[in-house]
Specification:
The complex is a heterodimer of chains A (540) and B (52). Chain A is an all-alpha fold and 540 residues long. Chain A contains 23 helices and no strands. Chain A is globular and about 70 Å long. Chain B is mostly helical and 52 residues long. Classes of the chains: A mainly alpha (540), B mainly alpha (52).
């Protein structure tokens, strides 16, 4: 059996806290501060929280442990990518090709997510320079955002040069790739150690400021009414499947399960390292950022200045309007508003970048481990690829290509990956081996009930979510009956959407070809599996 | 805020903060199984041994 060609990819985490901060940074993203409060408010408040915590216990935390377990098991054979992790467990020629989705999904998400992340960097700059000062209505700020995105309707006021979004996108992508090129310990871990404390610090400051905001003349509501808006239980909603699906979806997005990044990070651990307690700490950190801090900033601030009905209208109009249109209006009414604007968009930027740097880790690991390429070469080459296809999003945003990728990779794709992961780790590996593997070096004994949950409840819950979404959303979107963004489809956008889908299919074909090449190059035998290596890169 | 909203908020915050405090307390207490380079001991050497 050939060795895994791992000699060129020896990397490891420098410290346990660095590992947890990087994992939590990967999980804490824009969704914690923009998507969560909107979902909670729109889906029955307190009732949503009941279904949310059920989904956390039955889906989120089990999948977190499964991804850590899958990743660390792959790391025994120096496999930081899903094709290798699947092949290490499922000794079948199809395993590696099924795992191709684990290279495509994070790459696709990284490309458009970095573009969205660049908006936060741009708005941090616009806040400091008070560029949007004087635009005091939400409608006006939506126009400002559209001007920045170069999608303003004809005749609308233009506030920016057409090249402005390109400039910020390229700058954001450059920072991401630079961090990635520095490696696990020297780049990603350092970013997490700096970025996560800043993120939590800014979030705490903003939450305190928002909760102290006085009631506005003519509005009469306070931030506490905003919390009431989020947490007021509407028990009648508990019977709606949509509420259960919304909470399951939120748990999915917030914990970054199905993105293949947690498993890639965990592959840099040895079999003597704990993963059960580390995994739980990661989930707990993310949930604190989301429930305690994420729910206390945007919606309560919107309620203070626009009342409950105004905040509800904003929440229903989309997460980005809440973050990029409502909050800038709020900041203009507060002393030191430009600095608080910097804090808000800085917070979102750090939440975004600690997630996006993780997304290229699986594909970087693939090229380094299977083809022996240098880290810097892989990082900058992938950066060039992300630049080319990222420009497609910048240029064609108004044609729905970003929504299309967000749906197929960032929504539906995540659930598909998670289903495959749980089947491979819990069913093919067998529950007994999976349980034993999780507890190697464990600092925390997982309650036995979770063995049953992870074997049966989690996969069935996932299959239900996948089936429902497939029927209600995926099929109509695929057939061009509705747009991936939720609204009716503009027929003029169909060629752009078709092209964007073709790009994803192209990525998938290239991934399959590269996997085939890697297996031939390294003379892997699918039926025998890989040779185990220790983290110094030598055969064990 | 209504009593029901306060109950749900307090319950949610207690759950996530409790989970975080529990996990990080255990992390700080049990520094046994972390060996990032894969070649060191599973248990860190005691202070006295290190000094020797």
């Amino acid at each position: 059996m050939a060795s895994s060609g791992a000699g060129n990819s020896n990397e490891a985490w420098g410290s346990r806290i660095g590992l947890i901060l990087a994992m939590a940074g990967n999980a804490v993203g824009l969704g914690n501060f923009l998507r969560f409060p909107r979902q909670a408010a729109a889906n029955g408040g307190g009732s949503f929280m009941i279904t949310y915590f059920i989904a956390l216990i039955l889906l989120g935390i089990p999948l977190m442990w499964i991804e850590w377990g899958l990743g660390r098991n792959g790391g025994r054979y120096r496999k930081g990518h899903i094709p290798g992790m699947f092949a290490a467990i499922w000794k079948h020629p199809a395993a590696k090709y099924v795992g191709a989705i684990g290279l495509v999904v994070p790459l696709v998400v990284m490309i458009y997510y970095t573009y969205i992340e660049s908006w936060t960097l741009a708005f941090a700059y616009f806040s400091v320079t008070k560029d949007y000062w004087g635009i005091t209505t939400q409608e006006g700020m939506i126009g400002y955002l559209q001007s920045f995105q170069s999608i303003a309707p004809e005749g609308a006021t233009l506030y920016h040069h057409p090249y402005t979004p390109y400039f910020f996108f390229i700058g954001t992508l450059f920072v991401n790739i630079w961090v990635l090129s520095k490696g696990i310990s020297g780049g990603i871990e350092k970013l997490a150690k700096i970025g996560m404390p800043i993120l939590f610090g800014l979030a705490i400051v903003l939450a305190v400021v928002v909760m102290m905001l006085p009631s506005q003349a003519g509005i009469g509501t306070t931030a506490w009414d905003g919390l009431e808006f989020i947490y007021r239980p509407d028990y009648s909603r508990l019977g709606e499947p949509g509420v259960w699906l919304a909470s399951a979806g939120q748990i999915f997005f917030t914990l970054s399960v199905g993105m293949c990044t947690l498993s890639a990070y965990a592959s840099y651990l040895s079999k003597k390292d704990d993963i059960t307690l580390n995994g739980l700490a990661t989930a707990a950190t993310n949930e604190t950022a989301e429930v305690v801090l994420g729910g206390t900033i945007a919606i309560p601030a919107a309620v203070v200045f626009f009342g409950v009905s105004g905040a509800m209208a904003v929440a229903q109009s989309g997460s980005f309007n809440l973050g990029f249109a409502t909050m800038p209006v709020v900041f203009q009414h507060i002393p030191f508003g430009n600095l608080l604007g910097l804090a808000w968009f800085g917070l979102l930027f750090f939440a975004g970048i600690t997630s996006s740097v993780a997304m290229l880790t699986p594909i970087t690991a693939f090229f380094r481990e299977e083809f022996g390429f240098r880290r810097e070469t892989v990082a900058w080459s992938l950066g060039a690829l992300c630049l080319v296809f990222g420009l497609m999003h910048v240029h064609w945003l108004q044609h729905g290509v970003l929504d299309e990728w967000d749906y197929w990779a960032g929504t539906f794709g995540l659930v598909v990956v998670a289903v495959l992961e749980v089947i491979v780790f819990m069913w093919i590996f067998t529950p007994a081996k999976a349980w034993e593997s999780l507890h190697q070096g464990a600092d925390l004994r997982i309650p036995k009930i979770f063995k049953f949950i992870m074997t049966w409840v989690t996969p069935l819950y996932l299959l239900f979510v996948l089936g429902w979404w497939g029927w209600v959303d995926a099929l109509p979107i695929l057939m061009h009956e509705k747009s991936a963004g939720g609204g009716p489809l503009n027929p003029a956008d169909t060629p752009y959407i078709t092209f964007s889908r073709a790009v994803i299919v192209f990525f998938a074909i290239v991934a399959v070809v590269l996997i085939k090449m890697a297996w031939v190059r390294n003379k892997y035998d699918d039926r025998k599996g890989f040779e185990e290596v220790d983290l110094s890169g030598e055969a064990a | 805020m209504s009593t029901a909203a306060i109950v749900f908020m307090a319950g949610s915050w207690t759950f996530v903060l409790g989970l975080m405090i529990f996990s990080f307390t255990r992390l700080l207490r049990d520094q046994q199984h972390f060996d990032p380079d894969g070649i060191g001991p599973a248990v860190p050497p005691k202070k006295a041994e290190t000094e020797e």
